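ENTRY TYPE: paired fold submission
RECORD: A
CONTENT: sequence, then structure tokens
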Amino acid sequence: MVEVCNVDASLHNRLSKTSAGWCVRDFMGHFVVAGTSWKHGNLSVIEEEAEALIAAIQEIANRGFTNVVFETDSKNVVDSINQNRVGVSEFSSLISKIKCLLSLHSSFKVNLIKRQGNMVARCPHTCSGRHFLA
């Protein structure tokens, strides 16, 4: 069976922090597990989207999931994962890490989803710390 993990990130300039969230649903769309995190600092939105995906992949792998489709609304992240370019920026480093994680878990896939379809992973700016819901 295939599970779907929606991943999203938000930048909160006024609060100088970024937040991320992910939510796993089973093949019937039922909630399985979710997680949120936040950190202080001003990463770019694209870097935070990539970091959110890394955190989700690592957590899902650590929990023993297989056959997971990760959905993100970040076209830049998905396009970069599917390209063979290598760069020296922080974003390029994050993409390399994602590619490495995906190579270790060949049944994990990353797909683009419209922003409206990714609302399940949205994390409000009031998140504090790191939380897992099961």
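RECORD: B
CONTENT: sequence, then structure tokens
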Amino acid sequence: MKRAWVVFPAVSLLAAACASEGSGGAGGGGAAGAGTGGSGALGGAASGGGGSGGTSAGGTSNGGSGALGGSGGAGGAAGSVTGGAAGAGGADAAAGSGGATGGAAGAATGGAPGDAGSDAAAVDAGADAGDAALPICVGCTELANGQGIVTDLALDATTVFFVSGNPAGVRSVPKAGGSVTTLVHGDSPSRLVLDATSVYYLANSPPSVVKVNKDGTGKQTLSTTGGTSIAVSSTWLVWVIGTSVTRANKDGTSPTSIYGPGTAGSPMVADEFNLFFSEKIALKKGSYGGGFPQTIAVASSVGDIAVDADSVVWTTSTMVHIADKSSLKLGSPVASGLLAADGVAVDAAGVYWSSYAGVQSATKTGTNKTTIATGQGGVKAIATDSTHVYWASMNNGTIMKATK
């Protein structure tokens, strides 16, 4: 005999009945189970299932009805390969006062039981409050947890570097998994970028632009102005201060304002030759030499920007956009109808972004949209390498990766 249990909140009453299992064979019919509803204003649930159908003329049996607004019992399980269909679940009882008895189980047709048949697959008795809230994460690995409010991350060939608050600091963790290393304690960092040997980050306490070796040695303050976005090339370090962009040598010397004030803003990214930044109500492309930036698109409230060899992508609150990096020709939106879209990354394989729905991906033309993870707790920072997508949760303090 098999028992099926349905668990309800503590404020509900529980009534469960066991269903006899009919065995397979010619003309066999299982005995029907009956459930009794709970009593009281809060209404229990009848969980008795109907018996299994037999093989020849297998009958169908119904679960008992719930009492006082409780949910009905689960239907009986199906019989063997040639058995009858699974019984229907009992009907929910209407709300009312006083207890009531669950409905009787339906009769099963057939002769004496034959040899035991194989069980049918279990059927969920019904939706419950927890079903929709369960997070999914396809091919995911947690690299670190308990890292506070993680606001940015960056990758090199072997390591994930990230900045966080509470506890504040600059940290790293191997891509393959392992212990978290603290490069810098404190500073309340907000953004970071990498080159071959160093981590460059924006600190808020005190406001400054800081450089540190990837092993945590050689910390240097390059500027005491602070900023809101930072980018690096093989030659230059650039950062946004208010509505201006400052360029300096990578040791912080010879700082020069190349855009602004009033012409540039955050976020900002860069490749070896160009800068891409938001400016008031537009997305702009500029150069390290300054001059007049080109308008890529009219775009207010840009959440994040990313570039690869061919494309520039950016998020607004409800959409993910794409344009050719050279011609600046706009493509069709990669995704639309989003809620609170924020972090974004792009590579030859596709576009990856975060929103209220979680972490998702699609091709650059918007096809093959896939949900990689849900329930990640406020993803702002996202990055990719050739095999994985990585992201950081502001709320959960986790560093995650998933197979692309």
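NOTES ON RECORD B: The domain at 140-403 is CATH 2.120.10.30 (Neuraminidase). The two ends are 45 Å apart (CA to CA).
STATUS: closed
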